[in-house]
């Protein structure tokens, strides 16, 4: 069983976050804009969902690097076990015919 990690980052810099994730070999993720509250004040924020077999330590390292490069004092990491399945819809050949 894999894990679903959600990283909450107090910044709206989504393209920078995506670039950083890819530099750390995270190529499959969902990134979405949200409003977070830090010390009672609303701020633009990002949430990143990663479903993976990787270790918690690896995700914490990635969160730390994201936080440093995006100039954040902290990044919240939430983790929960997930039973997931990738459902194939079309073959590569079918996709290339379009």
What does this structure look like?
The protein is α+β, with helices and mostly antiparallel strands. The protein has one domain (2-96): Alpha-Beta Plaits (2-Layer Sandwich). Helix content is 30%, strand content 37%. Strands 2-3-1-4 form a four-stranded antiparallel sheet, with helices on one face.
Rg calculated over all Cα atoms: 15 Å
CATH class term:
Alpha Beta
CATH topology category name = Alpha-Beta Plaits
What is the CA-CA span between the terminal residues?
A: 35 Å
Oligomer: single chain
List low-confidence stretches. Answer: none
Portion in strands:
35-45%
Q: How would you state the average pLDDT, rounded?
A: 91
Question: What keyword list fits this structure?
Answer:
98 residues, alpha+beta, Alpha-Beta Plaits, 3 helices
Task: Give a quick precis of the structure.
The protein is α+β, with helices and mostly antiparallel strands and 98 residues long.
Topology of helices and strands:
Blueprint: E1 2-9, H1 14-23, E2 30-38, E3 41-52, H2 56-69, E4 76-82, H3 92-96
Antiparallel strand pairs: 1-3, 1-4, 2-3
């Amino acid at each position: 069983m894999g894990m679903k990690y959600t990283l909450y980052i107090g910044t709206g810099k989504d393209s920078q976050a995506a670039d950083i994730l890819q530099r750390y070999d995270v190529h499959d993720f969902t990134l979405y804009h949200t409003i977070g509250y830090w010390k009672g004040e609303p701020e633009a924020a990002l949430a990143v969902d990663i479903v993976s077999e990787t270790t918690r330590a690896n995700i914490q390292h990635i969160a730390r690097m994201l936080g440093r490069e995006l100039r954040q004092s902290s990044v919240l990491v939430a983790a929960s076990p997930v039973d997931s399945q990738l459902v194939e819809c079309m073959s590569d050949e079918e996709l290339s015919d379009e």
